Amino acid sequence: MKLPPYPIFPTLSGETISLRQIVAEDIKDLIEISFYDGIQATSVQKATEMQTKINLDYANGNSIHWGIADKLTNKIIGTCGYYRGLDKGAGELGCILLPNYRGQGFMTSAMQLAIEFGLNTIKLNRIWAITTKTNEKAIQLLEQLNFIKIADLEDNEIEYELRTN
Fold it and tell me: Where is the N-acetyltransferase domain (predicted)?
């Protein structure tokens, strides 16, 4: 396994998006999708504080959090990454996209890049994701990416796991 942090923060590139490190100039565009421990940011200051915690988690080898950048503008339109389990050879994959960019294939590309990185670079043995039972678009995305439902959880949540064979 090759856990974070890395000597150079990994940038991953697809046809329409790239996954890159979030910088201070990006924060203002991400307030509505900035979360930490299930709490949403309400200001640039709160989003900045959350990003500082996310960066510390990365520095401690506990996660990797990318901004999803539209390749035409380099504007961050969402985030994705692995947020827990890395020390056990597993990764919980999470993602969120700004509403104006949903339904255009950006998240599918981002998740494919993140999955490939998790399997081939970090060498994860298991990749999983948790969403709510009512988030039909997330469920559809996970199933399209070869995840299978493995558990019903509390608080109306369900767990999916990547099927690798």
Answer: 17-165
Q: Please tell me what DSSP assigns to residue 117.
A: H
Tokens 């294939």 locate to 105
For tokens 């299978």, the residue is 148
| Helical axes 136-144 vs 106-117, angle rounded to 10° | 50
Does residue 131 sit in helix, strand or coil? strand
Is cis: bond before 5, omega within 30 of 0?
Answer: yes
pLDDT in tens, 32-64: 999 998 899 999 999 999 999 999 999 999 999
**How far is Cα 112 from Cα 80, in angstroms, rounded to an integer?**
11
Domains of the chain plus CATH, in order, are 12-162 (3.40.630.30)
> Which residues are 39's β-sheet partners?
36
